[in-house]
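Working notes for the structural subgroup meeting. M.R. asked for a predicted model of this chain before we commit to crystallization trials. I am recording the input and output together here so anyone reviewing the notebook later can reproduce the run.

Input as submitted:
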Amino acid sequence: MERNLAQIALFAAMIAALGLVPQITLAFGVPITAQSMGVMLAGAVLGAWRGAAATALFLVLVALGLPLLSGGRGGLGIFVSPTAGFALGFPVAAFVTGLVVERLRLRPAGLVAGLGAVLGGIVVLYALGAIGLSLVLGKTLPEAFMLTAVFVPGDLLKAAITGMLVQALARARPQTLAWYRRGPANGAA
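Returned structure, recorded in token form:
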């Protein structure tokens, strides 16, 4: 139990730290940030429930006013801003990423983590982000999806980095990946 709580807190802190990476804010108010990679990593390393818990803890801290989002943003106002759909989508994206790595029995581990990051951290997160953009900016859903298209190349890179980091963890410390079990039939990391 203590280890789970420590891992959840550690990943919430990592997502916050990734907000310190310099950002570019786009004209429609949504920044390009490294924090979405933290969401991908939370799900890919911790699994569905603990990954979602780490991102939910991060959002609770943001809601309390801690300036943890990229650009030093925090407080309840972010939940009615153009970034609201993306922020509220963090736990869902981490959960889906984790669900993919837990249920898909592919090897190598980096491949399944990268695939989970694409499905959860891009497809699901963009869907929720586009809904938020549509509501806040008064755009149609197709218009909002077009606005999110600018993020695709960078987020594909983040998904690939997530896969590489998980692959390295699977080789060096497979016990850190609760969902990953190395066995005789699947001895390749």
